[in-house]
Write a structure and sequence with these properties.
- The structure is a single chain.
- The protein has eight helices and 15 strands.
- 24% of the residues lie in helices and 37% in strands.
- The protein folds into three domains: 1-104, no CATH class; 147-222 and 238-315, no CATH class; 320-350.
- It is flat, with a radius of gyration of 27 Å.
- Strands 6, 7, 8, 9, 10, 11, 12, 13, 14 and 15 form a ten-stranded mixed β-sheet that branches. A three-stranded antiparallel β-sheet has the order 1-2-3.
Length: 350
């Protein structure tokens, strides 16, 4: 099988999508092209290619070998990779067959940030964290930051119904002899009808759901019709979690948000849910690709994952604590406290 690549219409060199210009830029001759110009030179997919196609009977192997159109080298990709790189020449390889043998994405938010933005954000996060091990901060790890389009299902929901809350108000007072506390208990019923636009659910099992949720919000004003040309210069995944499965997470998130919004209307000091009679119905679903920078760092047999929203620059992830760093800081704090106590003792303060 052959991999699709993109060539500069002016000189034939490799051309990639540049987030800052929101254009395709040739690093060899400096030419820049809009999506319309790329389509004119048949260097971007047409509307026919972008049409949704679902072939349920297509069997996809665990790994396939593609041939790079630039240098002829073989590219090995697993079943869920739709865009990768040739390890020999660095050319982007868009595996069009993978896209067409499943549902083609409806929409995409192109990258707005570049790798240097992600590097800077990661360096800023770890710079002033003295307890983070030095191994975690090594430049080699920062170089591993990769831009990748991750598949999401975006659902439109209608929510209708009511929720009952057990609510309380408490006040206290005292006189010369006693302390009094009065608690009033209420049963409060709130009704509402709410509409939700594009509630997200991660469509790839490779990425932790809680990490992907933490990258929100994405700004939907930048959503455009999907075109495989946007994948140039980045990696991309194909969904392996079907929309009929992912919808359960999206529904749960939507119901929880609806309950919280109704609970805000309860004008009492405390409240808890007594009965939930909310009903949710899907009105639409879109398959969209969202830009994310990822870095996975292995430390003491555990992999720590950082992710940055490739549109807004929001960065999330867990930081490890280094044993050596914790010990040194603990000893340092102890010695500092001991020195302060000795000075206070010598000075006659204690």
């Amino acid at each position: 099988m052959e991999a699709l690549d993109h060539k500069c219409p002016s000189c034939g060199a490799k051309i990639i999508f540049h987030p800052k210009e929101q254009k395709w830029v040739c690093e060899y001759c400096g030419s820049q092209f809009t999506l319309e110009e790329m389509q004119k030179y048949q260097n971007a997919s047409s509307e026919d290619v972008n049409q949704k196609t679902v072939q349920k009977d297509v069997k996809v192997e665990e790994a396939d070998v593609y041939r790079c159109k630039s240098c002829g080298a073989e590219i090995v990709a697993d079943a869920n990779t739709t865009a990768t790189f040739c390890v020999y020449c660095g050319n982007t390889a868009i595996l069009k067959e993978r896209i067409q043998n499943s549902r083609v994405p409806d929409l995409i938010i192109p990258f707005q940030k570049v790798k240097n933005d992600a590097v800077g954000a990661f360096e800023k996060v770890v710079k002033h964290k003295p307890l983070v091990p030095k191994l975690f901060k090594r430049k080699e790890n920062i170089d591993k930051i990769t831009g990748i389009y991750i598949p999401f299902w975006a659902y439109d929901f209608e929510v209708d119904g009511d929720v009952e809350f057990n609510a309380t108000d408490t006040r206290s007072w005292s006189d010369m002899n006693y302390q009094y506390t009065k608690t009033d208990t209420f049963l409060t019923k709130c009704q509402g009808k709410m509409s939700y636009d594009k509630v997200l659910a991660d469509g790839s099992s490779r990425f932790p759901d809680d990490l992907m949720d933490s990258l929100e919000p994405f700004q939907y004003k930048d959503l455009v019709t999907y075109n495989h040309a946007f994948l140039s210069g980045f990696l991309a995944e194909k969904y392996d979690v079907d929309d009929t499965v992912a919808i359960d997470r999206a529904k749960s998130r939507t119901i929880n948000t609806s309950v919280s919004l109704l609970q805000e209307r309860v004008r009492h000091q405390t409240s808890s849910v007594a009965k939930n009679d909310l009903f949710i119905q899907k009105s639409d679903c879109n398959y969209i690709m969202l830009p994310v920078f990822m870095v996975n760092i292995k430390y003491r047999d555990k992999t720590y994952t950082f992710a940055m929203n490739g549109q807004t620059g929001k960065i999330v992830g867990d930081l490890p604590l280094g044993r050596k760093e914790v010990i040194l800081w603990s000893v340092g704090i102890f010695l500092l406290c001991l020195a302060v106590m000795i000075l206070l003792f010598i000075g006659g303060v204690i």
